């Protein structure tokens, strides 16, 4: 698997970091995890044919994780796509879909086949030989999902937005790559919504992943990156990386 961190920023505008999006390439089947603002342009920097994107997993429906799905759909239509696109997400997707495609952008309906797949808290999807599983993340009152992709003995977990969550820590036990948010520094973050460096260190110590890539990074975190990486690593053997847009990680 090849993982590309398309967007590593937050909902605040950042000229260096667009919003959330991860591309996982498994042979000829790319999987897109979240599509925040700026992700379409990042995607076009790394793929030669955007119509290959036929599986999109949305973690939740905050705008910084789904806003570019509409622009992706328009691009797929204008590119002549006729194949089916599959979109996966929590059940609240139905209300989001109605607002976006029935009310705001009805001209996009029916341009190519899109199939919605509502995921319960512990669903699993098979894409050829790959398995994509989900568990709920702890993101305040928002119904949200963390995703795990397994393929031929390799594994990736994407936390999405979450406060420290025991179920995600267990979900990521022993994975090759954990992509975990680290939105704010200790003392400045809002509890029940996001994860701080010290809290992430406890998750890493429990899960013992081979590698960790930090994403959803505010400028305050990036500004003291060396200290943050040291805190997150602690005494573990895990390789800890500060994610940046277009970073490629082989798994």
Q: Can you describe what's shown?
A:
By secondary structure, the protein is α/β, with parallel strands linked by helices. The protein has one domain (2-250): Ribonuclease Z/Hydroxyacylglutathione hydrolase-like (Metallo-beta-lactamase, Chain A, 4-Layer Sandwich). Helix content is 26%, strand content 28%. It contains 8 helices and 14 strands. The protein has helices at residues 39-46, 63-66, 68-78, 93-104, 166-171, 197-207, 219-223, 225-233, and strands spanning 2-7, 21-26, 29-33, 55-57, 85-89, 114-118, 124-127, 130-136, 145-151, 154-158, 177-181, 211-215, 239-242, 247-250. It has a 7-stranded mixed β-sheet, covered by helices on one side. A 7-stranded mixed β-sheet has the order 7-8-9-10-11-12-13. α6 (197-207) packs parallel to α8. The longest helix is centred in the middle third of the chain and has 12 residues, at 93-104. The termini are close together.
List the helices and strands and how they pair.
Blueprint: E1 2-7, E2 21-26, E3 29-33, H1 39-46, E4 55-57, H2 63-66, H3 68-78, E5 85-89, H4 93-104, E6 114-118, E7 124-127, E8 130-136, E9 145-151, E10 154-158, H5 166-171, E11 177-181, H6 197-207, E12 211-215, H7 219-223, H8 225-233, E13 239-242, E14 247-250
Helix pairs in contact: 6-8
